[in-house]
Specification:
The complex is a heterodimer of chains A (113) and B (113). Chain A is built from no helices and eleven strands. Chain A is mainly β. By secondary structure, chain B is mainly beta. Chain B is 0% helix and 50% strand. Chain B is built from no helices and eleven strands. In chain B, the strands form two sheets. In chain B, strands 2, 4, 5, 6, 9, 10 and 11 form a seven-stranded mixed sheet that branches. In chain B, strands 1-3-8-7 form a four-stranded antiparallel sheet, with no helix packed on it. The termini of chain B are far apart. In chain B, 36% of the residues are buried. Classes of the chains: A mainly beta (113), B mainly beta (113). At the A-B interface, strand 5 and strand 10 of A face strand 4, strand 5, strand 9 and strand 10 of B.
Chain lengths: 113, 113
């Protein structure tokens, strides 16, 4: 019940295309859903986060879509660029303990020029 | 405003030695979280600390691992009598409070030889 399942494991997208990464969770107590971007040898960097009171949040080229009834959320990267090539992790946690994150397994994104 | 600072960035220990990993949270942050990332895997929560208190250590192995966050100075993750299976990247994150986003450091990559 504590798991967060992420797919796909890897993704190859052409420059300018849309990258879509999906996550599903089981624990309905989760109410904070961030996405992190990690480059090789670096720490995870917070990209964007959403709470269940909204169904979508957009920041620049990055959009989170959230479906509370399906217990799913996804990251869309519009106009993908080679510099977006990295590993992306979705995560979930509960209010009052947002730093205790349950991470997905990660998606390695490669954007081809 | 400096980010989360971790040192050392790389640490090599022989089996049976002790490893000490240090984490200085972001300025103004009093909540610290430690995570472990095994090769090709996502991050796993280990422990959550506030100044002088361990709040949640549900992800810590029962033996050889300990963590502290003293009133003065950085948080320390200590691994005694290291074994090869302890080889991993250890990340520290900090947050301002229990309801705000967590920011990660660059990690310490521990190699046990």
């Amino acid at each position: 019940q504590q798991q967060v399942k992420q797919s796909p494991q890897s993704l190859i997208v052409q420059k300018g295309g849309i990258s879509i990464i999906n996550c599903a969770y089981e624990n309905t107590a989760f109410d904070y859903f961030p996405w992190y971007q990690q480059f090789p040898g670096k720490g995870p960097a917070l990209l964007i986060a959403i709470r269940p009171d909204v169904s979508e949040k957009k920041e620049g080229r990055f959009t989170i879509s959230f479906n509370k009834s399906a217990k799913q959320f996804s990251l869309h990267i519009m106009d993908s660029q080679p510099g977006d090539s990295a590993t992306y992790f979705c995560a979930a946690s509960k209010s009052g303990n947002t730093g205790k994150l349950i991470f997905g397994q990660g998606t390695t994104l490669q954007v081809k020029p | 405003n400096a980010g989360v600072m971790q040192n050392p960035r790389h640490l090599v220990r022989r089996r049976g030695q002790e490893a000490r990993l240090r984490c200085s949270p972001m300025k103004g942050h009093s909540h610290v979280y430690w995570y472990r990332q095994l090769p090709e895997e996502g991050l796993k929560f280990m422990v959550y600390l506030q100044k002088e208190n361990i709040i949640d250590e549900s992800g810590m192995p029962k033996e050889r691992f300990s963590a502290e966050f003293p009133k003065e100075g950085p948080s320390i993750l200590r691994i005694q009598q290291v074994v090869r299976g302890d080889s991993a990247a250890y990340f520290c994150a900090s947050s301002e409070d229990e309801n705000t986003e967590a920011f990660f450091g660059q990690g310490t990559r521990l190699t046990v030889v």
